[in-house]
Request: fold
Amino acid sequence: MKIIIAGGDGFCGWPTALYFSQKGHEVAIVDNLIRREWDKELGTQSLTPIASMEDRLSVWQAQSGKSIKFYLGDLQDYDFVEHVFQDFEPEAFVHYAEQRSAPYSMIDREHAVFTQVNNVVGNLNVLFAMKKITPDCHLIKLGTMGEYGTPNIDIEEGYIRIEHNGREDVLPYPKQPFSFYHLSKVHDSHNIMFACKAWGIRATDLNQGVVYGLWTDETKLDERLYNRIDFDGVFGTALNRFCIQAAVGHDLTVYGKGGQTRAFLDIRDTLQCVELAALNPADAGEFRVFNQFTEQFSVLELAQRVQAVAKQMGIEANIAHLQNPRVEKEEHYYHAAHTKLLDLGLKPHLLSDELIQGLIETASRYQDRVSRDVIRPSATWR
Amino acid sequence: MKIIIAGGDGFCGWPTALYFSQKGHEVAIVDNLIRREWDKELGTQSLTPIASMEDRLSVWQAQSGKSIKFYLGDLQDYDFVEHVFQDFEPEAFVHYAEQRSAPYSMIDREHAVFTQVNNVVGNLNVLFAMKKITPDCHLIKLGTMGEYGTPNIDIEEGYIRIEHNGREDVLPYPKQPFSFYHLSKVHDSHNIMFACKAWGIRATDLNQGVVYGLWTDETKLDERLYNRIDFDGVFGTALNRFCIQAAVGHDLTVYGKGGQTRAFLDIRDTLQCVELAALNPADAGEFRVFNQFTEQFSVLELAQRVQAVAKQMGIEANIAHLQNPRVEKEEHYYHAAHTKLLDLGLKPHLLSDELIQGLIETASRYQDRVSRDVIRPSATWR
Reply:
């Protein structure tokens, strides 16, 4: 399959590109490398050293004998997007190329506006180019479980059957996103749903949970193939951040009570899920929604789990309940459906102590790269 | 009350500004006058001659003895927005200042992107300026009934109680917008809902139906106070467009079967509704949603109604069923709640033959201003 991985320099995109390449697909990465610039802006870096895209791709070719094409550019630049579609003629377009941090979107007005314009316009450009050049191409769009918020009823996969005043319909599941970033994904979802209906685009919206883990079969082959992993308060996410905090002797930073329950998955399952979506494309005109996660945990549960594994390793990790910088419920009902990818054959990697131990060991190995100044949350929702 | 009418040069904004001024409120208009540029772009003009903003305001001062302040600028320019809030310190901000035509948003990629960026960024800027400078100010935002689409269940006002798997919650009503324009309003609604929750902003989202009519007590006082009214296939809307078509001997252009049912209201009721919202503000942190319309009609019903009134006036108007340029259901269930504004005291002006006759007469008077080349729909959804 000819498949584009947009955002292929990022945490999910890079291992996805290698995974599809390894499987024998013809892969192209589209990226403007802006994720590296955000590190500079925030005074942080990946825990793991990451090679330049040029080095990444040449090492991959040497290791695997397979080449990955690279298009350097910004999805906000429509001429660039159209060129990519014309030149590569993809059968599937995996769209990770968005600003994906909720705290980054909440830094200030400029970051909120940047996040929404970057994400919404980039996605619109992809839809228009797809309509014009490869109308049969399958858009595999990364959404987020955070689009749903924390309703007091079960979360379904994209749609819900509603009975009301003696009639019924299946309607898009109501959205209550958590941040300007999560809002941008809701905007994207609505735009894509419309493009499917109006133009017959085929699309799968993957409402992904929080991704943890680091290593995949491909990225661990050579240090120059290593994936990035974030420890800072802006891009670092629960679990990965806790493991790094434990390794460097920092408190595990739980925001408020920690009863916030979210959906999680192993990065290896991200690759599996995207592959399952690609191999089983949506129908023409179908806006298909999968909830892409394997387990749900409260933030405090995860901190305690990391604390316990650290203890077995001889590390005393303290859990600190910071004043919550976010506006969110700290105790709430949470139950989200996630059967559609299982039905397609997903074999989950459930969270294991071994994975946590491995992350702590990796973090210990690279602890000199961790700046403690950027670990605590800096952006506030208020 | 100190009240800003953003978009105060437009079809709804101008009469709203005069109405509040007449009632003794301190009014400021914010507008970049871009609506006049879109006329030039599309090769059309208002049926009625419209004076410059300078003339409009000086005639109003001479007629009423009341002055309206005018801020010339674009809501996408945050420094301008912040200046307006600091200088005027509004208690209410009525936000009409968006690109409001569905066909305009569907012309091509550039117009789709323009519409979403213009509307979403302008609205974000208003929210951020309000938070910073006048956190108690009441945002009265014009949404559209088109956010809901045409679900097979009753449409409620913003929220719906859902029972599901033995639990229940009141959630935002699911949205299925019709065009990139309608999508921009859905994006705005989600952004405002979040700002209310995170920052305690008070907001009322007025999901308005299609507005018909032209005259208000204030705009008819002097030709230089006249409101604009559109006949072209891009900005002209059902009913008003049909009346003008009847007057100039053009077919009444019904798209497809004409069974598309929509919500409608008289422009005088727009003013009443905005006034009721302003005098009864939302609570701090409340995202209040009103469905702002008085009656629902199918497009064909309206064409037939205009045809009948025209016949009484001695005009034979033919109804032409054009190939539908839009992707929409032409026969569907439609029943939308609209009690909240009635509960606040709205006294509807229901559609009358007299109003239709008056519009046809006005159109006859200005028929030389109607270019027949721009009446048919030019933008397609496909």
In short: Residues 109-133 of chain A form the longest helix (25 residues). Residues 2-374 of chain A form a domain with the Rossmann fold fold (CATH 3.40.50.720). Chain A has a mean pLDDT of 98.
